[in-house]
Amino acid sequence: xxxxxxxxxxxxxxxxxxxxxxxxxxxxxxxxxxxxxxxxxxxxxxxxxxxxxxxxxxxxxxxxxxxxxxxxx
Length: 73
Description:
By secondary structure, the protein is an all-alpha fold.
């Protein structure tokens, strides 16, 4: 990547990671790895939260979530 693009991506980082190109390059590369990984983890977390909310809502009506999966709609 070009120097200007790296420093633009490093904006907001702490210390020399925002203005020293060598450190900024390493930090930006690691940040991009984290963002790639966490986009997938976010989907996993949201799916888990979604199931928990549905389960809580169904229990208020006397049904459990696993029963919803089994019963024909």
